[in-house]
TrEMBL record:
SMART domains per UniProt: AAA
Organism expressing this protein natively: Pelagibius litoralis
Gene3D superfamilies: 2.40.50.100, Nucleic acid-binding proteins, P-loop containing nucleotide triphosphate hydrolases
GO MF annotation list: ABC-type ferric iron transporter activity; ATP binding; ATP hydrolysis activity
Cellular component per GO, a single term: ATP-binding cassette (ABC) transporter complex, substrate-binding subunit-containing
Family stated for the protein in its record: Belongs to the ABC transporter superfamily.
ABC transporter domain location: 4-235
PROSITE patterns to which the protein is assigned, alphabetical: ABC_TRANSPORTER_2
Signal peptide feature range: none
Xref: PANTHER family: ABC TRANSPORTER ATP-BINDING PROTEIN (PTHR43875:SF14), MALTODEXTRIN IMPORT ATP-BINDING PROTEIN MSMX (PTHR43875)
Protein name: ABC transporter ATP-binding protein
Keywords attached to this entry: ATP-binding, Cell membrane, Membrane, Nucleotide-binding, Transport
Length: 354
């Protein structure tokens, strides 16, 4: 296994900067998800790690080995793409074994042992003799995963492998990926725009925007303690509520607060907003300590009794995620409270500590 070291890497296409001076290390044995919206640079970064693109500047190292100028075949990596290339005239087992035939250091017995191990890991022993054309898209991707991990390379790269898989197969495929990554402990970089995949699979998530990594953290910390407004908005379904706040001396005033929020004197200038997750907003039928009045504008029935309501508080519209519907119908009034320990403060888009 090996760390992946991204040493001040920039990638430009003409005047467009796809990746902007990234300087980060992905630890060996970890699953790192590159997460972000389309066009954020995650695929370009993965392609540079793979050797399919060359950085405009900077270096890429696997451990102590500088691979910046090496072609893919000399990097000792496995890859799983959105559209896996398979051999339709070969069986599942033969497709998994195919890359191993080029490794002269492996005996026939070792190749067979690896194929058997992967078939067990993927729970595909009963399909070992099936041909690729007989499989659904999810099963084909499982074979592609098996073919990559059977080589036992230091690093495996996944490029949005569930994009073209239907929903039920996608869930099964994610469970398979989780089992594979936990069992083999290879260094894995997984590109996705799907936050559920990232939160499920990753040891750490690199959240990307406009060619930069805005936060690199464990999934739960990234969700609970976003370092930027973008992180609070992008993660969550729906994302965080943001409410404009006005600073008066060492206090912040906002429509969601029944009393001011004390802040440090050195908070600095700029635009201040308060952020809170929809599931952390409390909704009541009667006034209580710290509550403010709001009007129900919309309700959506969710899964397993988890519902989403939109509540107008002054000029702000607050998203509230709760078990069960709001205590009143649309256009009725409710009381909302915002636990102070759940409120985050952002200045000019960046998190600040009170």
């Amino acid at each position: 296994m090996a760390d992946i070291i991204i040493d001040h890497v920039t990638k430009r296409f003409g005047t467009f900067t796809a990746v902007d001076d990234l300087d980060i290390r992905f630890s060996d044995g970890d699953v790192t998800c590159l997460l972000g919206p389309s066009g954020c640079g995650k695929t370009t970064l993965m392609r540079m790690i793979a050797g399919l693109e060359t950085p405009s500047s900077g270096r890429i190292l696997f451990g102590e080995r500088d691979v910046t100028q090496l072609p893919p075949r000399k990097r000792n990596i496995g890859m799983v793409f959105q559209y896996p290339v398979m051999y339709p005239t070969l069986s599942v087992a033969e497709n998994i074994a195919q890359p191993l035939k080029h490794d002269r250091s492996l005996s026939r017995g070792e190749r067979e042992r690896r194929v058997e191990e992967v078939l067990d890991l993927l729970d595909m022993r009963k399909q070992a003799r099936a041909f690729i054309d007989d499989l659904d898209a999810g099963s084909r991707q499982k074979v592609a995963v098996g073919r990559s991990v059977a080589r036992q390379t230091d690093i495996v790269l996944f490029d949005e492998p569930t994009t073209n898989v239907e929903v039920n197969a996608k869930l099964q495929l994610i469970r398979t990926f989780k089992a594979v990554t936990q069992r083999l402990k290879q260094t894995i970089v997984y590109v996705t725009h799907d936050q559920t995949e990232a939160m499920t699979l990753a040891d750490r998530i690199a959240l990307m925007k406009d060619g930069s990594i805005v936060q690199y953290d464990a999934p739960r910390r990234l969700y609970n303690d976003p370092s930027t407004e973008f992180g609070g908005w992008f993660l969550g379904n729906p994302g965080m509520n943001f409410i404009a706040a006005e600073r008066r001396g060492n206090q912040l005033h906002a429509t969601i607060l029944d009393s001011p929020l004390d802040v440090a004197s050195d908070l600095g200038g700029g635009e201040i907003v308060l952020g809170i997750r929809p599931e952390n907003v409390l909704m009541h039928s009667e006034p209580g300590p710290g509550s403010v009045e709001g009007r129900v504008t919309e309700q959506t029935i969710g899964i397993a009794g988890r519902n989403l309501a939109r509540i107008a508080v002054g000029s702000a519209v607050i998203k509230v995620k709760a078990d069960g519907p709001a205590p009143v119908a649309a256009d009725g009034t409710v009381q909302l409270s915002f636990p102070r320990d759940r409120i985050l403060v952002f200045r000019n888009g960046a998190r600040v500590t009170l």
